[in-house]
Design a protein that fits this description.
The chain has about 120 residues and is mostly helical. Helices cover about 85% and strands about 0% of the residues. The protein contains four helices and no strands. Helix 2 crosses helix 4. The mean pLDDT is about 80.
Length: about 120
């Protein structure tokens, strides 16, 4: 009988040891899951920030495309005179359409100072 109780005691101790090992493994797994969740969270935050940056870049590019399309439309509307003899008319026509000195300079290929002079003489 003592022998039987000894065997039962050994079996119970082995089961207790197994439970302790299982708990340790479960604890390690929980720690690894927590680490994984932390890393995944950081990665998602970085991805979200990257998406925000890309959306801002896209909006900037869209604005520039719209600006260039407007410049092209205005450039198409300009009637160029022989050898640039009628720059005054061209500058005044573009100013009348709401373009600024920088835009007019880009369209006509003339210096800012010349545009300012034409505008000042027209006053």
């Amino acid at each position: 009988m003592k022998k039987l109780f000894g065997i039962v005691k050994d079996v119970i101790e082995m089961e207790d040891d197994q439970v302790v090992r299982d708990n340790r493994c479960e604890g390690r797994v929980n720690v690894e899951i927590a680490r994984f969740e932390k890393v995944a969270g950081a990665m998602f935050r970085r991805l979200e920030k990257s998406v925000e940056i890309l959306e801002a870049i896209e909006a900037s590019v869209d604005a520039k495309i719209a600006h260039f399309e407007r410049l092209l439309q205005n450039a198409d509307a300009v009637t160029y005179s022989d050898n640039g003899q009628n720059r005054r008319y061209e500058v005044l026509a573009l100013t009348g359409k709401g373009l600024g000195i920088e835009e007019i300079s880009n369209i006509l290929g003339i210096q800012h100072g010349e545009i300012e002079l034409i505008l000042n003489l027209n006053r």
